[in-house]
Design a protein that fits this description.
By secondary structure, the chain is an all-alpha fold. The chain has two domains: 196 residues, no CATH class; 194 residues, no CATH class. The chain is 79% helix and 1% strand. It contains 13 helices and two strands; from the N terminus they run ααβαααβαααααααα. Strands 1-2 form a two-stranded parallel sheet. Helix 3 packs antiparallel against helix 4. The longest helix has 51 residues. The protein is globular and about 55 Å long.
């Protein structure tokens, strides 16, 4: 519950950050910032695969065991350095594609991506050990820094100022996770060396990047294919609709260690899947339903009257984001079982991208296409998870006796 509360505070503060800077920058400039932040969210959530793989390795190997984690931490730092190089190399291309006027926001994005990746390994190890308190504190401190510093600097330095706050907040989170993980027993050579299997890491990486790329695809394409103001309206609606995505995802992240342990134990205690799935579904319906019933009020309260034309988009996008939130839970369930079906979001991307390029006359059209693809993916993954809950070889139920006696002559 503490971790769920911290994740909720993290997402609400991130949401508040968007609300504040959108009012400071206006639709046109916020459209550019929103595209970069969507890319940042994609990189952060995509590299969460590192955390998920580490969490699963610790949960399956034994949360109470002493682990020597020095090698996996070094690998994480090397990957963070590589992320800086990759983002800097792609900066000129991204600057043109997103119609930016300066490369500075993308350089700050490189710092943010590196800090995110560096902090994922210690975060995953802490979660695998069920040490939710230090992770909760790190997330809360980091997002508070992002909100305070980003809001102040956005007023004076525009997009670059907002990105400075976001990068600084992620650095704070990474440093605090490192400190907490290093202070744990077994990190100084007196425990078994923690090893994350290549297959586990590869599967988690593919699943995470596929899913979070799917959540950002429509926003990214809207920024590129629509005009500045239209894309800003779309980003605002997408940001508001993300409530229906991140609320159930908070339950998913808190439940994943238990799902991984249950998969290793052949099922785990009763309700390991059912209880968190039901809670996630209830939150999804409540969030999406509330947004769909009062879209105009939500947009005006959050972003101001300048974004009032985002309301029709919000009605559509809260459905697609809600579907994606439940897809996340099912993806983690299948990832816990090491099933390749957790990669199905990639199939959805391969469908969504050409469909949007073929028909993108308005933001509403793009949002409708996103709804169809996301809902179809949810249905397919739901059937797969249902099959996993019924193990192979389960005996068929006894046939009821006939109401009369058959007598052979």
């Amino acid at each position: 519950m503490a971790f769920f509360a911290a994740l909720t505070y993290f997402n609400l503060s991130t949401f508040g950050f968007h609300v504040i800077v959108s009012r400071l920058l206006g639709p046109a400039r916020y459209g550019a910032l929103g595209a970069i932040l969507a890319l940042a969210a994609l990189s952060g959530n995509g590299t969460g695969a590192v955390s998920a793989a580490a969490t699963r390795a610790v949960a399956v190997g034994g949360a109470a065991r002493a682990w020597d984690t020095r090698r996996v931490r070094r690998v994480g730092l090397i990957a963070a350095g590589a992320a800086v190089v990759v983002v800097c190399a792609l900066a000129p291309l991204l600057e043109r594609y997103l119609h930016l006027t300066s490369p500075v926001p993308l350089l700050l994005f490189a710092l943010l991506a590196a800090a995110t990746l560096a902090g994922m390994v210690p975060r995953g190890i802490l979660l695998g050990r069920r040490r939710f308190a230090p992770v909760s504190a790190a997330l809360a401190c980091g997002v508070t820094t992002k909100l305070a510093v980003g809001a102040v600097l956005a007023h004076t330095a525009g997009i670059s100022g907002a990105m400075t706050g976001a990068a600084l907040g992620e650095c704070v989170t990474a440093v605090l996770c490192f400190r907490a993980e290093r202070a744990a027993p077994g990190n100084h050579g007196d425990g078994s060396e923690l090893s994350v299997p290549v297959r586990s890491f590869s599967l988690a990486t593919g699943a995470y990047w596929g899913f979070w790329l799917l959540t950002a695809t429509d926003t990214f394409l809207a920024r590129h294919l629509l005009g500045a103001t239209a894309s800003g309206l779309y980003v605002a609606a997408s940001t508001a609709a993300s409530i229906a995505l991140f609320l159930p995802n908070n339950i998913t992240l808190a439940a994943f260690p238990s799902l991984a342990g249950a998969a290793a134990d052949g099922g785990g205690p009763p309700g390991t899947f059912r209880r968190p799935f039901t809670a996630a579904a209830v939150l999804t319906v409540a969030a999406a339903g509330g947004l769909a019933l009062m879209p105009g009020l939500v947009v005006e309260v959050l972003f101001g009257s300048g974004f009032k034309h985002s309301a029709p988009l919000l009605v559509l996008l809260c459905v697609s984001n809600g579907s994606q939130g439940m897809v996340s839970f099912l993806m983690h369930h299948q990832l816990a079982h090491h099933k390749a079906t957790c990669l199905l979001p990639w199939v959805a991307i391969l469908v969504l991208v050409p469909v949007v390029y073929a028909a993108h006359s308005s933001g509403s059209q793009i949002a409708t296409e996103d709804v169809f693809v996301s809902a179809s993916l949810l249905g397919a993954m739901g059937l797969i998870s249902l099959r996993l809950l019924v193990p192979r070889g389960t005996p068929a139920p006894d046939v009821a006796p006939l109401p009369f006696e058959v007598v052979a002559e």
